[in-house]
Specification:
- The chain has no helices and 11 strands.
- Strand 7 (68-73) and strand 8 (78-83) form a beta hairpin.
- Strands 2, 4, 5, 6, 9, 10 and 11 form a 7-stranded mixed β-sheet that branches. Strands 1-3-8-7 form a 4-stranded antiparallel β-sheet, with no helix packed on it.
- The chain has 116 residues and is an all-beta fold.
Length: 116
């Protein structure tokens, strides 16, 4: 059974930090591309960051580059998104998306609220 679960969201002040985690099981994690998306109220879901499978190549949305860092631990089947210097416009539900030959799909999301 495939499971994908995000955690680590919460309320933080502008300039603060949060670390999101995406834990997955039920497929070959090492071969999967992992994506973090976010969706703010009234807006479309957008890709925030991606990490490749074999080479671990990364991509970042320009507005988060230099503030967010995506990383993976294949031994623990987890991908993390370290978010620093958070801004109010980062407020959104953050979703983990898995893409592999065995399975593709979304986690349930975790809320990030940046507010003073």
């Amino acid at each position: 059974q495939v499971q994908v679960e995000e955690s680590g969201g919460g309320l933080v002040q502008p300039g603060g930090s949060l670390r999101l985690s995406c834990a997955a099981s039920g497929f070959t994690f090492n071969n999967a591309f992992i994506y973090w998306h976010r969706q703010a109220p009234g807006k479309e879901r957008e890709l925030v960051a991606r990490i490749g499978s074999v080479d671990g190549a990364t991509y970042y949305l320009p507005s988060v580059k230099g503030r967010f860092t995506i990383s993976r631990d294949n031994a623990k089947n987890t991908v993390s998104l370290q978010m620093n210097n958070l801004k109010t416009e980062d407020t959104a539900v953050y979703y983990c998306y898995v893409s592999s030959r065995q399975w593709s799909g979304w986690g349930q999301g975790t809320q990030v609220t940046v507010s003073s």
